[in-house]
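Shift notes (night). Ran HTH tetR-type domain-containing protein while the centrifuge was going.
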Amino acid sequence: MTITDGLGRRPGGRSARVRAAVRAATLSELAEKGYAALTVDGVAARSGVHKTTVYRRWGGVEGLIADALEMASEEPWPIPDTGSAEEDLRALTRLVVTGFTDPDDGPVSAAFIAAAMQDSAAAVALAGFFASRHEQAARIVTRAVARGELPAGTDPAEVVRAAVAPIYYRLFVSREPVDAAVADRAANAALAAARAGALG
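Came back to this:
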């Protein structure tokens, strides 16, 4: 199977460099200005890529967001492997909290969520991003089942969703603060549900 860059071209060479430059510029613009102020002109100026090229390849802001998310979904996630389901899940939820509270990464992560709520292409790309993250994080649960820490038949994806859902609720629904303590409680609740067989 031929791997392409998502636009029908093989990666490598100038095409890959242009995509990387535009993606880096998109992330920087999001971090500094947020989704509402993201423009093709701003990304073009920051990346050094002519705006006609950006329009031709990405179509507009929505395409820039979708492509940045697609590239992010292809990147490996540092999944914890401590030998303990409890510690792994806590480390995972703390990783999610850090992703939204970090001064550099937080605004970008929040901008991706905002974009997905306003644009269908961004929403599809965000769904793909989360699917990739859940697939990687599922190894925590698979290992825990193999060690006998969780019941056979536990659904790895459901455990991951249960662990991270309270964090997203606080961030984007109730607008409550999140910290390591919140992360640990969310992980503990998911683990308790899994041990009780509720997430099979």
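The domain at 85-195 is CATH 1.10.357.10 (Tetracycline Repressor; domain 2). The two ends are 35 Å apart (CA to CA).
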